[in-house]
Amino acid sequence: MLSIKQFCEQLEVSRTTVLYYERKGLITPAARTPNGYRQYGERELERFRAILAYRSYGIPVSEIESLLQQSQDEDRDVVLRQQFAALDLEIQKLRQQQQSIMALLKEPELLNQGLLTKERWTEILKESGMDEQGMINWHKRFEQMEPLGHLKFLKSLNIDEDEIEQIRAWSRKP
């Protein structure tokens, strides 16, 4: 049996990390000594390694318990494939944002001089390979991450206030 210190050393994690997952109900000590010290065995080591692996895949803590309880590899595969698809979608969104920024960087004087219009910006995005849904997603991300920056950007495109409010309103919807 391992003390919590030995357990942490073997897994290369902090005591706080172990206690966090214990509070979440994902790990429990195999036993306690008469004076209350936690003790962990090989089973707990393997379980904690699985927790760390799932977290490294980006799987939320709330979903890890069900993964740990599933004995069927097929069930586990479904969850991992779903996470893979979610990560792939996130990567696509980030690439679209990169394309938008790169397009703007090629013509920064447009933004600095107030020469960039809504029409020109749309054209730049289309030329960078972004479709209509990609542009909608771009606005939603911008509004979510930097609402004031999004507002300033829309104003810099010389869009009237009513249209800006409409764009921001649908950008806030999930």
From TrEMBL:
<feature type="domain" description="HTH merR-type">
    <location>
        <begin position="1"/>
        <end position="70"/>
    </location>
</feature>
<dbReference type="InterPro" id="IPR009061">
    <property type="entry name" value="DNA-bd_dom_put_sf"/>
</dbReference>
<dbReference type="InterPro" id="IPR047057">
    <property type="entry name" value="MerR_fam"/>
</dbReference>
<dbReference type="GO" id="GO:0003700">
    <property type="term" value="F:DNA-binding transcription factor activity"/>
</dbReference>
<dbReference type="Pfam" id="PF13411">
    <property type="entry name" value="MerR_1"/>
</dbReference>
<protein>
    <submittedName>
        <fullName>MerR family transcriptional regulator</fullName>
    </submittedName>
</protein>
<keyword id="KW-0238">DNA-binding</keyword>
<dbReference type="GO" id="GO:0003677">
    <property type="term" value="F:DNA binding"/>
</dbReference>
<dbReference type="InterPro" id="IPR000551">
    <property type="entry name" value="MerR-type_HTH_dom"/>
</dbReference>
